[in-house]
Amino acid sequence: QVQLVESGGGLVQAGGSLRLSCVASGRAFSSFTIGWFRQAPGKEREFVATINWSGGSTYYADSVKGRFTISRDNAKNTLYLQMNSLKPDDTAVYYCAADWSSGDGGSWGQGTQVTVSS
């Protein structure tokens, strides 16, 4: 089982930036799929971004492409999400997740709130 702890959320004005972090423990950091999801009030949870073990391959939801950057530091067992040009529609709880496609649903962090004011 992978344990995930997110941090870095907060309140920011539209156009601003935030960087989220997710520290993983419990299994070798390179041994599982990892990425970011978010859930806005009244909406279903949606995929945001994922990155492969080496960091050489990334994939983004269309809604964040060009504004968000996912990265990882394997030496620190840490996943990052740099969010630039934030919009009010980006307001959500952001979750770090591992192996979310597995039969048991994978592992999820507790979430970190991001609020973007207009």
Structure notes:
- The protein has strands at residues 3-7, 10-13, 18-25, 34-39, 46-51, 58-60, 68-73, 78-83, 92-98, 107-108, 112-117.
- The protein has 118 residues and is mainly beta.
- The strands form two sheets. Strands 2, 4, 5, 6, 9, 10 and 11 form a seven-stranded mixed beta sheet that branches. The protein has a four-stranded antiparallel beta sheet with strand order 1-3-8-7, with no helix packed on it.
- It is globular, with a radius of gyration of 13 Å.
- The N and C termini lie far apart (39 Å).
- The mean pLDDT is 96.
Describe the main β-sheet briefly: 7 strands, mixed
Summed up, the helix count is 0
The oligomerization state is single chain
**Care to count the β-strands?**
11
3D shape: globular
| Proportion in helices | under 10%
pLDDT < 50 stretches: none
Using the CA coordinates, give the radius of gyration. 13 Å
Distance separating the two termini: 39 Å
Provide mean pLDDT, rounded.
Answer: 96
Provide key terms for this protein.
118 residues; four-stranded antiparallel sheet; 50% strand
